[in-house]
Specification:
Elements (H helix, E strand, L loop, with lengths): L1 H8 L1 H28 L16 E10 L4 H11 L4 E9 L2 E10 L1 H12 L4 E6 L5 E12 L4 H12 L3 E5 L3 E8 L1 H11 L4 E6 L3 E4 L16 H4 L54 E8 L4 H11 L6 E6 L5 E8 L3 H12 L4 E6 L5 E12 L5 H10 L3 E5 L3 E8 L1 H11 L4 E6 L3 E4 L6 H5 L7
Helix pairs in contact: 3-8
Amino acid sequence: QATGLVRSHCPSVRHAGSTHRSFLMKNAVTAVRASQRETYDVYVNSGEQLDEGVKKHILSVFVADESGMINRVAGVFARRGANIESLAVGLCEDKALFTIVATGTDSVISNLSKQVAKLVNVRYVEDITDIEHIERELVLIKVRAPPGEGRVELTNLAEIFRARILDVGETSCTLALTGDVGKLAAFTRNVAKFDIMELSRTGRIAINRGEYLFDRLSSLQGGSQDDASPAGRSIKVRNQNKKMDVYGGTTMDSMDAEDILIERKEEVLEATYAKAPPRQKGKILSLNVEDVPGVLNEVTGVIARRGFNIQSLAVGNSETPGMSRITIVVPVGESSIQNLIKQLYKLVHVDSIIEVENQPHVERELMLIKVSCNTQQRGEIFDIARIFRGSICDISRTTVTIEIAGKEKKLRALQEILEPYGILEVARTGLLASLREAGLDSSYLDRLAGPRV
């Protein structure tokens, strides 16, 4: 009672008690907020600053389609301890354009470019980091969104970022979004509060803006790299003593140390395409691997040593920090794919493998295509892009660049329509696939027996 009287009649003591309680309450709130910042149950991207002089470089590597080419390109980076942040490969008949994002200093990347360019059937290597270019990336995100206000909010976000909803299940939604790295990062951060269940992304693909083509400067006769390349370009000049056709074969013993390019006379991609022969139906594998240097070389090495070719490859960060997802399309039979999966599981850094082909799924691919046209033909090109739900991402006096996402049949159909105008460049990502929660799609239903009449 005496203590209570003292507290009630002594204002200084009463003030000290309230101050102490508020101090404890403030510390408790700070501790709760700190714990919330440190423990997340969803994927949060907290990047680290690069060291001084180190930056991300975008390399365009144009090659002839050959079994094991991806493994040889990835091996150059792995043997030198360089990590590939993202890699996108899309075949265009008998040729392919690799877009590689690697981190390093200018001297390190320049040395890697020279080593890659020495590989057989590599037509050219170019560092387009400091050049005006268009770069796009495709991401598939499966978000936990049960019916209700959360799904309505997610739909509004998709409309703001121009994302497309590909699949809706009882508790989840799958969305596809294309854009540059900043747009994808902003969208991922906004939907992170819904709990990202699965995230698959391709590497970046890039095409130079305007009328400039990748290999135009390399057609200069003679001269050094500095003479043939403006500032910021890393175009490797050809060796005038080597006489070969566009996809002529050679051996490493016959190559000199200075052999960088093989001779070529056409543009990057010819103005007209011969109709591609039908390819064997590929098996889609989704691998969840640890994000360590050389893991891509290990995976592609297992496939190359067994004589299998890779039709499509997409590598990017997954929804889990420290993990990456590799989506591969391999044209093999059912018995061969099971043996291949067993061999891939033996790799130390492979966490899980999903065979997507035999299950209901959604698949998407991204393509940038540059077409030659004059002012009178622009309206026709715009109408074609609108029909295929593509978008115009660049225009110059004589060229138009179209961005389109969809299945492989859709992309091939657009190429056939645009052939008469003259296709100058094509850059394609690998294929991305995500399982449907509903467990139904057209190919799955076609395999089921229908009602008898």
